[in-house]
Amino acid sequence: MQAARVRVLGRGLASSRPAVFPRFQASRRLLTTGTGSEGASAPPPPLKSSLWKRFLQTTGALTLVTVASGTAFYYFAQRDKTPGVQLPHDPSKKTLVICGSGWGATSLLNSLDTADYNVIVVSPKNYFLFTPLLPSVAVGTLAPRSILQPTRYLTRHKSRQVTVIEASATDVDPVNKTVTFADTSEIQGAVSNTTIPYDYLVFAVGAEVQTFNIPGVREHACFMKELEDAEKMQRVFMDCLESAAFPGQSTEEIKRLLHMVVVGGGPTGVELSGELHDFLEEDLRSWYPELAGNVHITLVEALPSVLPMFSKQLIDYTVSTFKEQKIDILTKTMVKEIKEKSVVLQMPDKTIAEVPCGMVVWAAGNTLRKVTSDLMTKFPEAQSNRRGITVDECLRMAGTNGSIFAIGDCTATSYAPTAQVASQEGAYLARILQQLAKRDELEARKNELQGAATPEAKAALEQVEKKLAKVERLRPFKYSHQGSLAYIGSDKAIADLPFFNGNLATGGVATFLFWRSAYLSTLFSIRNRTLVATDWLKVKLFGRDVSRE
Questions:
Q1: Which backbone phi and psi does 475 adopt, to 5 degrees?
Q2: Is residue 53 within 8 Å of residue 124, measured between CB atoms?
Q3: 291 within 8 A of 237, measured Cβ to Cβ
């Protein structure tokens, strides 16, 4: 009986446990999933929600940066596009005449405070040409107008009005201080010659191509000096290609038409050879596959090596790169004559060879313009250097009374005739002219105070004399070499840069990117930087245009 009672009690206890354990388990779940401080941490949110949130944040940040950058770009572009009101010419100010619109003259205009002078610019071109990128125009990498900067684009942003006259200076009278110039454009008005007076003259007319009186150079060669030279070379090169593609041409004639000879182993000749190679490899092999294998490039240099201004390490690197590109380099080789279908060369062993070719590009040397030579003949004793105008340490023309300054390629200095030198000379001369304007102002003030006898006037006169003595001391021009750059093709460039007390010589793809960034930063306006960068992008995406005008 007791055993049965125990069994019944056991079954009752066993049957009552399920009613207790669920409540206990529920309380455990509340403890583990509760949000109180005594519970464990919450599980992470779903992964998809986290990724979507990051995507929205990144997209929002990029949109904000894009809108801000676009707004800033539009603001600066519109500011450059819409110049403000300028001061009119002041009869009490001195007249400054600038002859030329090249590197020296444009750098001067860019740095000059025109409020100090009545400025007149006289040049046969109403624009500034960024010459280091001229070889890129010759093969269609850049559009011609991408490297042009209208002169009025600079002058209209100055504080005082600047008169821009498109004309060629024909004569300078240093005695009467006048400049005579003529309109040489295709369309002329009733007046095409005139003479204007000046107080200060900046002579920056540059130089023209030196042919060394070699027969046939002007008649049969393409130059690489002006914009029209690059456009002509592009037309001739495409003409050679289309003529070689004409049915029935012999193999010898095809090889002749597609043989391109570049004369001059300086930066211009080397960069042009590299650009021609890029045109061949990146475009002509696609559109002229039957002719691309016959295109041959030869670089001719009279000196023992190309790029003599660079270090030997970079010269050797350039030579090895050209060998890989199958560009022939002929050093110690002189051009004796250029014919319609060939070029006559004097080889290093003094033998004469006539080399058939379709095009010759002449990129060797500068010589004086006629107006420069005529000006120098008026100072036979002081101007005896046949290379150019002799100037003092402040860039004043020797033999004058300080009223004529000369900068750029028309001068004979100890510096190389490069764009970098001319640009620094122009910026320096802007500071000198500002100092001269201040001196003239102090001299006028001094003349006013000399007639007064009051103590205040005497004290003011002493202060003016001290300031006058200070501004009369002109610091001489000192050139600061910022390095040399050259493009050698295949997305490679070389750079010889000053580094502490030595030089940093580098070459390759990374230097090519530095070369492009350096040239972009050197351009004068956001307009030119945008156009050049856009042209580079278009060529990378779509290639160069192979149509012939």
A1: -75, 135
A2: no
A3: no
pLDDT tens column, 109-157: 999 999 999 999 999 999 999 999 999 999 999 999 999 999 999 999 9
Which residues contact residue 542 at a Cβ distance below 8 angstroms, ignoring those fewer than 6 apart?
A: none
Q: Closest Cα to residue 201, out of 171, 156, 225? A: 171
- The pair of three-digit structure tokens given for residue 15, joined into one six-digit string: 């049957």
Q: How far is CA 349 from CA 196, 301, 336, 346, 497, in A?
A: 56, 14, 14, 8, 36
Report how far apart, in Å, the C-alpha atoms of 377 and of each of 156, 201, 407, 414 are. Answer: 36, 17, 18, 22
| Nearest by Cα to 330 from 264, 259, 260, 256 | 264
The SS3 of residue 182 is: strand
pTM of the model: 0.86
CA distance 4 to 98: 130
Token pair, residue 271, equals 């960069």
Q: CA torsion, points 325, 331, 337, 342, in degrees to nearest 10?
A: -30
Instruction: Pick the closest to residue 360 from 330, 340, 332 (CA basis).
Output: 340
Residue range 425-470, pLDDT digits in tens: 999 999 999 999 999 999 888 888 887 778 888 888 889 888 988 8
Burial of 491 (0-12, 13-18, 19+ CB in 10 A): middle
Tell me whether strands 208-209 and 484-489 are parallel, antiparallel or unpaired: unpaired
Sorted by sequence, the CB contacts under 8 Å of residue 528 that are 6+ apart come out as: 130, 146, 147, 148, 149
H/E element, 250 = none
Nearest to 331 by CA among 308, 361, 365: 308
- Answer yes or no: are the C-beta atoms of 493 and 507 closer than 8 Å: yes
Cβ(538)–Cβ(346) under 8 Å?
no
State how far the Cα of 153 lies from the Cα of 155, in Å rounded to an integer: 6
Burial bucket for residue 423 (CB in 10 Å: 0-12, 13-18, 19+): buried
User: Which residues share a beta bridge with 513?
Assistant: none
Backbone angles phi, psi at 130, to 5 degrees: -80, 90
pLDDT tens for 462-506 read 898 889 888 889 999 999 999 999 999 999 999 999 988 888 999
Q: Copy the structure tokens of residue 252.
A: 């010898």
DSSP 69-121: HHHHHHHHHHHHHS----BPP-TTSEEEEEE--SHHHHHHHHH--GGGEEEEE
Residues 117, 435: contact at Cβ < 8 Å?
no
Half-sphere exposure of 213 (CA within 13 A, CB side): 0
Q: Is 135 helix (H, G, I), strand (E, B) or coil?
A: helix
